[in-house]
Structure formats: structure tokens, C-alpha cells
Amino acid sequence: MDLHRLPLPELRDDKHRHKQFNGNENSNRFRPPKYKPRVSQGGYVAVDNNNLNRSQSLGSCSANNSSNIAHAISFRGVEFPDANTLPASPNVHDVSSSTDFDDRSHFELCFERLAKLGEGSFGEVFQVRDRSDGRLYAVKISKQLFRGEQYRAERLEEVRRYEEFSDHENCIRFIRAWEQYDRLYMQMELCRESLDQYLQRCHQIPEERIWHILLDLLRALKSLHDRNLIHLDIKPDNVLIGEDDETCKLADFGLVIDVDRANSQHATEGDSRYMAPEILQGQFSKAADVFSLGIAMLELACYMDLPSNGPLWHELRRGILPEDFIDKISKELQLVIKSMMMPDPADRLTTDQLLSHPKLQKMQKNRKSLITVNKLSRSFRKSRRVVYGKVCNWKSFAYRCLFYLLELLHLYKPIAPAQPTITPAPSSPSTCLAAMPRLEYQLVGSTPIANRDCYASDFLTGDDPLELSHHGTPHVINSTPLNHNQSSRRSSLGKTIPTLELDSPFANVSSPKVFDTSSFRRKKLFVLDYDDE
Ligand SMILES: Nc1ncnc2c1ncn2[C@@H]1O[C@H](COP(=O)(O)OP(=O)(O)OP(=O)(O)O)[C@@H](O)[C@H]1O
Ligand SMILES: [Mg+2]
Fold first, then answer.
1. Engineering a disulfide at 426: which of 236, 322, 387, 431 sits with its beta carbon 3.0 to 4.6 angstroms away?
2. 4-22 in b/e burial notation, b at 16+ Cβ within 10 A?
3. What is the pLDDT of residue 40?
4. Half-sphere exposure of 101 (CA within 13 A, CB side)
5. Binding of ATP: at which residues (predicted)?
6. What's the chain's Rg over C-alpha atoms?
7. What is the mean pLDDT of the chain?
8. How far is 103 from 142, CA to CA, in rounded Å?
9. pTM for the whole structure
10. Residue whose CA is closest, atom 13 of ligand 1?
């Protein structure tokens, strides 16, 4: 047992003080040296290789060296076939520089690195743009190369946990993971910032917001504890704020262990500032997570700089909370924090007990009703859109029916045979005009040429694009209810009339002095009009 005992944090005389950020986030971090767990036969095994899917190879490097080939990593079952395949790299031409394609990692081929979001003891996290869908994500790349199969298995465990809790509202949404060049890459949803960054930005977080953060994290923690898992690294740095700027999500599952199998074998302690006292004795339990969450709430609510060691570190773990800090928050919140930071793990409230606190219960109820209202309004909006779409469809359907009906009426109207009355040749221009025939040419066609505006001049002057002049006398069709009194005319028509007079058998037929083109579903109707000129 002594083997697992951690060295006591060094004592340092100090006073509690407010947080001060000097740009180096990790400068006040003290991490007790990690003990190296024994790899024993019966001990906790980090990766169940039966469940691990090392699948498809998409790397472009030499196939002799399998670590150079990108392998998708997933512990999801066959019901998630996508999890076991890596998306194909986008076209090489899309990648900015034209260096040797073969040298690029899957990460470089698929993502554009935009910024560094953060760094922890295990990995660096980058904001990236996926070249295939253009969306923004976060990709965590392990800092150290896989030193051996055991180390690799431990790192890969994080993927299993991320996948397990990806669907939880208060845990990070996980996309996929792969390994290449002895490093692990994890693609996940991009969050706005960590809770620690939020605290740096706001300094004083309103108490109501603290309660909401507490509720989010208790819910996330409960889902872990319900599966007998412990996080062991609860701290504001490992809590991310979602894109909605409200929801807090638990991240960094790198140290998660199974309570039943873990005790002291492969468990690694987290940040000493948030560490429960019993961890020093190698006791890892769910209560340790509750303590870490409690002390993190103290930090957030009182804007307090947590000691990483020394007498103040021990004071906080003996249940002595600094009055001048804690007095600033409500008695209700004080009590909750104290109950989470009890020195004896057995005295600490569990996540279930904490979630049944009246204030948190009320908040959960409000949230539920808000969710219901949101759902209702969303489904109302959706159904309104559907109904509107249907109405529009019905409207257009009705119009179409009406249109076809008119069309039918129009087509099947009995055609009165044209019986032009021959009248004596006019003696004067005015009587000549009156005697001109009213001709209606129906041109039906579906080819582009038939759809163009057709003018009498096209075929009466010899430039007959439709070759109507070769088909003898144009049909006189009484098809459209033409406005016989229409006065609009085309100036070019006058030139064609003499040809008509010469060739047409209706040269002597009287006609209204109207010429018009109208189109009604690919039909052209012409009424020739005799112009004075
Ligand atoms: N999905 C994300 N969106 C935005 N920022 C992120 C995301 N994931 C991580 N970060 C940032 O990167 C930092 C480091 O990430 P993470 O905690 O996962 O790394 P780590 O090496 O496991 O850290 P630790 O030292 O706590 O073990 C976080 O504190 C956070 O600021
Ligand atoms: Mg972290």
C-alpha cells in the first residue's frame, strides 16, 4: 500500500488570496509526482482489445510501418459503422501547399489548423476547420508519443469514455478518433471556452449562474457515477462552455477509471488544487469527484486562488473554509459547498443527494418545462411550415387544375369553319382595309423555334422559318377569344401585306384591321392587319 502513497504536498505559509492570472495558466500548478503503477496480471487493464476497433487505413505513408498509417479508433459497436472509418482525405489540390502528398498526416490533409485552444498535461487542443465540410471543430493531439503498448492503451481509454458520454447534454460531443505516427488524435465539438477562461474573463460570476454550473456538472458526474466510473480530474479547466454560451460540458476523460477495478492499480491523481484528501492515501472513490467539484465551486463563487500545497491546502481539506471569502455567498450555497468538501469521504453527499436539493430540484423542473415549451414551439413552427407548404401546394394544384380546365375549354371549343365572304374589291383604301381578311394562324410546337415570337413577316416575305408558306393556305382557326378591337400593331407588318394580297386566296376577303400575336401555351395566333401604308 505504501507503494501507492503519494508524497505529501510541501508546506508553505500563506494566506488565502483572490485568483491572479499572470498569463501562464499552469504556473501555480503543483502536481505531486505520479507513481508508476505495477502492471500486474490481475490488475486493471486499460483497453479491452476485443472491443477496440482499429480499422481502415487511410494514411499515405509506407505500409511497412503501421504506425504511419492513420487508423480509426473506436470502441463503439457495429451499430456505429461510421465510427470505424475515417473520412477520405479531400482532394490533394485543396491543400494549400504543394509539398509531397505522402508526407502529410491525415490531420493535415483533412483539417486546416486555425488556432491553439489550450494545452494540458496530455495534449494540445487546436481549433480546426474540416476541409470536407468547412465546419469548425476541436482536435486534441496527444503530446507524447506512445511509449509502449500499455501507455497507448491508457491514452486510447479516453476515446472509449468520450464515446460513452458523447450523447449526454453535459458532456463534450465526440466525433471520431484516430492514431498516426504514434499519436492519438481526437476530433470533438468546438466549445466557446473553458470554465477557467470564463472565470478569468468575468472574475465575479453571479450566484445564479454558479447554481446552473453546479447543476450541469452534477448531471454529468451522475451519469459517470451511475456507471461506476470516476473522473478524477474535475476542475474548471476541464469544463467547457458550449456554443450556446450557457451549457457547461464535462471534458477531459483522460483519467477516468472504473471504481470496481481501479482502486490504486492504474488510477492517476488529477490536479492537486482540486484533489480530495483521501487520494493521498490512494483511496479513489466517487466522493473524490464530489470533493473536486465542491472546491471548484468554491473557487468560482468566491473567486479564490486555490493553493496547490501548504497549510492552506490542508485547511481546506479539514473543512475550514476562509470566512472572508465564503461570507460573500448565500448560506444555501455555502452549505452545499461544505457538504461536498467534508473531510471524510463517507460524509460527503452523493450526486443523487445533491441533485435532490430543493433549489436544484426547482431549477431542474424549470429547465424541463422550458425544454417542453421549446420543443412545443419548435414542433408548432415545424407543423406551421408543413401546413403552409401544403396549402401552397394545394393552391398551385388548384391553379394548375384551373389552367388545364381553361385549356381544355379552349381546345375543344367547336371550330366554326371559316367561310370568308367574298366582297367586291374595294374602291378606296378605306374600304380595302375593311375588306381585308382576319386570319388566325395557329402554330403549335414544342421546339425552341416554335416557341419564339412568330411574326407574319417571317413567313409571308419568304423568310419563313416554319415553312408555313409551303403548306398551302394557313388554317383559319377560331381558337382564342381574341380581342377583335385590339388596336396594337406591329409596324413591320405593313410590309408583308402586299405579299399577302398577291398570294392569299383571301385577298379579297374582308377583315378587321387587327394584327396581333398572342401566345397561350405554345400557340401563336396571328391576326393580320392591313396597314394604311
Ligand atoms: N472541445 C474543446 N473546445 C474548446 N476548447 C477545448 C476543447 N477541448 C479542450 N479545450 C481546451 O484545451 C485545454 C486542454 O484540453 P484537455 O483538458 O482535454 O487536455 P489535457 O492534456 O487532457 O489536460 P489535463 O492537463 O487537464 O489532463 C482545455 O483546458 C480547454 O481550454
Ligand atoms: Mg484538461
1. 431
2. bebeebeeeeeebeebeee
3. 36
4. 10
5. 140
6. 41
7. 74
8. 19
9. 0.65
10. 118
Ligand 1, CB cutoff 6 Å, lining residues? 117-123, 125, 138, 140, 172, 188-191, 194, 233, 237-238, 240, 251-252, 254
* Rounded Cα–Cα distance for residues 158 and 162 (Å): 6
Q: Could you report the predicted ipTM of this complex, rounded to two decimals?
A: 0.98
CA distance 439 to 441: 6
Q: How many CB atoms lie within 10 A of CB 222?
A: 18
Helix axes 207-226, 286-302, angle to 10 degrees: 170
**Residue pair 269/34 in contact by the 8 Å Cβ criterion:** yes
State the closest ligand 1 atom to the C-alpha of 190, by its place in the atom list counted from 1.
3
**Nearest C-alpha neighbor of 173 from the set 191, 185, 158:** 191
Q: Considering only CA atoms, which of 311, 299, 308, 374 is closest in space to residue 340?
A: 299
Say which amino acid occupies 57. Answer: S
Q: Check pLDDT > 50 for residue 506.
A: no
| Closest-lying ligand 1 atom to the alpha carbon of residue 255 | 27
Which strands, in side-by-side order, build the sheet including 183-188? 53-57, 71-74, 174-180, 183-188, 136-142, 123-130, 111-119
Each residue of 256-272: pLDDT tens digit?
Answer: 998 877 555 677 888 99
Q: Is 179 left (phi over 0), alpha (psi -120 to 50) or beta?
A: beta
What pLDDT, in 10s, does the model give residues 94-111?
A: 544 444 445 788 999 999
Percent of the chain with pLDDT over 90: 41
Nearest CA to ligand 1 atom 20: 120
Residue closest by Cα to atom 24 of ligand 1:
120
* Ligand 2 geometric centre to CA of 424 (Å): 106
Q: How far is the CA of 318 from the centre of ligand 2 (A)?
A: 26
Best residue among 187, 238, 257 to mutate for probing ligand 1's pocket (most ligand atoms within 8 Å of CB) is: 238
Q: Which residues are catalytic?
A: 233
252 CA to centre of ligand 2 in angstroms: 5
Which of the ligands is closest to the CA of residue 143? 1
Give the integer Cα–Cα distance in Å for 328 and 319: 17
Phi-psi category of residue 440: left, alpha or beta, with phi > 0 → left and psi -120 to 50 → alpha: beta
Cell numbers for 470: 409551303
* Chain CA centroid to CA 160, Å: 23
Tell whether residue 249 is among the known ligand binding residues.
no
What's the CA-to-centroid distance between 151 and ligand 1, angstroms?
19
